[in-house]
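Repro:
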Amino acid sequence: MPTVTRIVVAPNAFKGTLTANEAAHAIADGVGDACRHADILMRPVADGGDGTVAAALTAGFTRHEATVSGPLGTAVRAAFAVRHDAAVLEMAEASGLRLVPPGRHAPLTASTTGTGELVRAALDAGARRLLLGAGGSATTDGGTGMLSALGIRFLDRTGRILPPGGAALRHLYMIDAGGLDPRITQAEITVAADVDNPLLGPHGAAAVFGPQKGAGPADVAVLEDGLRTLVDRLGARPRGVLGLSARAAMVAASAGAGAGGGLGFGAMAFLGARVQAGAELLLDLAGFDAALDGADLVITGEGALDASTMRGKAPAAVARHAQAAGVPVIAVCGQVNVSPSAWREAGFTGVFSAQPVPAGAAARGMTGAPALISRAEAARALRRASAEAVRLVLP
């Protein structure tokens, strides 16, 4: 009787093409093509970005929906998950880059207002412990849109409320937090960050992630100036802030403050939130370590394995947990943009590209071509690459 090989399939979302669940099915199909006697356990993962709510639903939460403002101000339906007094929210559902139509990026004016409306909806549903995923955003407004939806006013020198977006923060003169929703003071808020970047500087929200949201060099400078003004004005101790204003610069420099276009900073500074590594929180929520018991191989992946993966994304966390359990782990990705030495240091046994490169080339560290566009094409390529990877890795 053939030996059964147990393989845990735990990909992140392939941004722009496949959800984590869709990617898991494509990988599992490839595993089945290469190893007919595999016992496949699918555990799609998330790190605070796309797929965070789906991960909570898999863990037994109940799906809720609310109509909120999208990043460009148009109404969108956003899902969140509730179990008892706990809620899992995903800013990508309300303020995500995937909600921006092609060619309509608005890096200077995109707002997190809908994320604040989503927080209010969770509070209305009775939640008092909120886990807010801060990845996949279209915004760089320091979370001020979210905070405005929760009752905080950001005013210019004339006392007028600032328009949405990060560019307007350059004109911030006064912050009035006296109207903050009182339920926030009774809530426990944790931000699940998919990166550990600070708010400001060359590794900050504007410089690193602004270009991904359509910001050119001049836009990045404008956004950086706006975020810096926000920190400076918060340091002036505005009325009603929850006690962190005196440490505004310290909060801005902390890990994860730059997550979600600075939403991590806004949540910490104004809402008393904690920022933690989203991948670790969500792996715990999904019971990932238990899934490793008896496993022979783990397969993870995401759209692009790059430097940001190593700064807190789910595949790197999967690799750490698998390595600690003594289980080899490989990644099958749309693109591979890190060197073999970097991914080996992160704990991966092998890394493979789903792009149409010569057979086995990804295992030697070759980078793929431009990102896959069609969902169906992405699934087929991921299936083929997964089958090739399994044939190369398993004895």
